[in-house]
Design brief:
Layout lengths: L1 H6 L41 H6 L3 H11 L15 H16 L11 E5 L6 H12 L2 E6 H5 L6 H14 L3 E6 L2 H4 L6 H15 L5 E7 L7 H4 L4 E4 L5 H14 L6 H10 L5 H17 L6 H11 L6 H14 L4
Parallel strand pairs: 1-4, 1-5, 2-3, 3-4
Helix pairs in contact: 3-7, 4-5, 7-9, 11-12, 11-13, 13-14
Bound molecules: adenosine-5'-diphosphate.
Adenosine-5'-diphosphate binds next to helix 5, helix 11 and helix 13.
Subcellular location: Cytoplasm
Main location: cytoplasm
Protein name: AAA+ ATPase domain-containing protein
Length: about 325
């Protein structure tokens, strides 16, 4: 029935074994997360799990299992260029206490807000966190919930957290979180989400983490922001990281630059997001394939600059920094 469906592992996750706390790999690749119902006090909604399960609509459960449970490949730290201090903060404050309970006296962090321009790797980082925890990842867009799934939005949110609770360890990733937390329009959904955040933060023995991402942190009211245990700014990649992303992406398009050209390119792409850098390389690769004849990779890139510009202006980046100073978590 519905409970069995909630407990069924997402297939692709059976293919890899999660990293263990000490970095060793399990000898036998078993199921990547414990398949069990919550054994102690219920995490969400107050009713015991059996009662909660009675309230779950099987069709919504099917939708959540099909569309919200992620089946992407694992993401490792090395897949993310730069973001050194953010990675260290996540490792220190979120992962280590969760993977080695007892080793750190303070209560582990369970709720995280990642903010920054689009395409800077907020989703990528969240997927990496999930890989490091060997967890089920449930990804939900706040905007989709409010538009395409509006009629069932409350039920869907409830079911997402029910499935997370059944499939621990689990990461619930809410992208475009501002659409659910900007007051006014979201109404019940907002208070529902805030109470889930509080429940996750409070139940220290439970293995559920909630990550909200947003490119518009200013739309989230102050009280809601503060419900996240940490708020981390994910800026566009720095020069070194841009060089890294460009080198890797260009190699995929059989484009080869000298170190000097690469350095010049990294300099020219200040404030480009990781996603925009990839797009730039894609355009250059396409130009390369379309136009046979003598032209260098750098010339192809020159042309690509007409097509791809950074979406975030310097002014917007300054606003992110200001917001970070006021509400961000120091790390
Ligand atoms: P966001 O969630 O911040 O909008 P994403 O995580 O979806 O951005 O990033 C989009 C894509 O851009 C990623 O899948 C990845 O391919 C690339 N990307 C962004 N930032 C980085 C980075 N720091 N290192 C490597 N790739 C990156």
């Amino acid at each position: 029935g519905a409970r069995d469906a909630a407990l069924r592992p997402a297939e692709p996750f059976e293919k890899f074994s999660p990293p263990l706390a000490n970095g060793e790999r399990a000898a036998e690749p078993g199921p990547p997360f414990p398949l069990r119902l919550p054994s102690k006090a219920p995490a969400f909604g107050g009713a015991p799990p059996e009662e909660q399960h009675k309230n779950v609509d099987p069709l919504v459960l099917e939708l959540v299992n099909a569309k919200v449970v992620e089946r992407g490949p694992p993401v490792q730290w090395s897949d993310i260029a730069g973001q050194v201090s953010v990675k260290a903060a996540i490792e220190e404050e979120l992962l280590r206490p969760l993977l080695r309970p007892g080793s750190v006296p303070s209560r582990p962090l369970r709720t995280l807000l990642l903010f920054g321009p689009r395409g800077t790797g907020k989703t990528l980082l969240s997927r990496c966190i999930s890989t490091q925890l060997g967890s089920t990842l449930l990804r939900l867009s706040g905007t989709t919930l409010l538009s395409a799934w509006k009629a069932e939005a409350e039920k869907i949110l409830q079911t997402v957290f029910f499935v997370a609770s059944c499939r621990q360890p689990a990461v619930v990733l809410i992208t475009e979180a501002e659409s659910l937390l900007d007051g006014g329009q979201a109404g019940n959904l907002k208070s529902q989400l805030l109470s889930y955040l509080d429940n996750v933060a409070a139940s220290s023995e439970r293995n559920v983490v909630v990550i909200g991402t947003t490119a518009r942190p200013g739309s989230i009211d102050e009280a809601s922001q503060r419900r996240f245990g940490a708020r981390l700014y994910i800026p566009p990649p720095d020069g070194e990281a841009r060089r890294h992303i460009l080198r890797r992406a260009l190699a995929q398009h059989s484009c080869c630059l000298s170190e000097r050209e690469l350095a010049a390119l990294a300099q020219r792409t200040e404030s480009f997001s990781g996603a925009e850098l990839l797009r730039l390389c894609q355009h250059a690769g396409a130009a390369r394939r379309a136009l046979p004849g003598p032209h260098t990779c750098y010339q192809d890139l020159e042309k690509a600059f007409c097509k791809v510009r950074p979406a975030a202006s310097q002014k917007e980046l300054d606003l992110f920094l200001e917001w970070d100073k006021m509400y961000g978590t120091r790390h």
